[in-house]
Amino acid sequence: MAGYGDDTAFNAWLAENGLTLPVGAPSVAVLRQVGSGYVDAAYEWKLWCSTRTGGFTQERAWPRTGASVYNAAVPSDLIPPQWIQASYRAAYLQAVTPGWATGGTDPSRITKREKAGEVEREFFEAGKGAAVGNAAPGFRVDPMIDGLVVPWLCWDGSGALGIWSIGS
């Protein structure tokens, strides 16, 4: 399975964003694979209004048939550049925080308050005060990734980006 983009473009993206991979990080090919897997797993659930161009056996969520963005049809052979950039961001987060893109959160193990010596911290409930985003439940959310993919997601009219209508 191939990750989105390519190694050269990923390295260029890192440089353009002033980022470097930590010493000992996995290869860029491995990181791209992990980042691509994260973005597809976290966000494909909101691509229900289109289908994989190559059918169910297609390795990645993109390219898609029937997708549209800002009311314009998306070519069925396009992999959105923003989706690729989101996968690069996820790859980078995985490199600097191993497990970021591969470990989920367990909502049944939420800590409200913890104390370590003299320090005591209290946390918000899940989804309150933290980045919620559009990722599938249980996935970590990065606001930059979420912002990159949100225009490509499907909307059912019940959210802020949906179409509202008032009937008589």
Individual helix count: 4
**Strand share of the residues?**
5-15%
Task: Give the terminus-to-terminus CA distance.
Answer: 51 Å
For the residues shown, what is the average pLDDT?
Answer: 85
The backbone outline, from C-alpha atoms, is: globular
Rounded to the nearest angstrom, the radius of gyration is 18 Å
Structural class per helix/strand content? alpha+beta
How many domains, as an integer? 1
Instruction: Give the SSE string.
Output: HHEEEEHEEH
How would you describe this protein?
This protein is of the alpha+beta class. It has one domain. It has four helices and six strands; from the N terminus they run H-H-E-E-E-E-H-E-E-H. The strands form three sheets. A two-stranded antiparallel sheet has the order 1-2. The chain has a two-stranded antiparallel sheet with strand order 3-4. A two-stranded antiparallel ribbon has the order 5-6. The radius of gyration is 18 Å and the shape is globular. The protein starts with 6 loop residues before the first helix and ends in a 19-residue tail after the last helix.
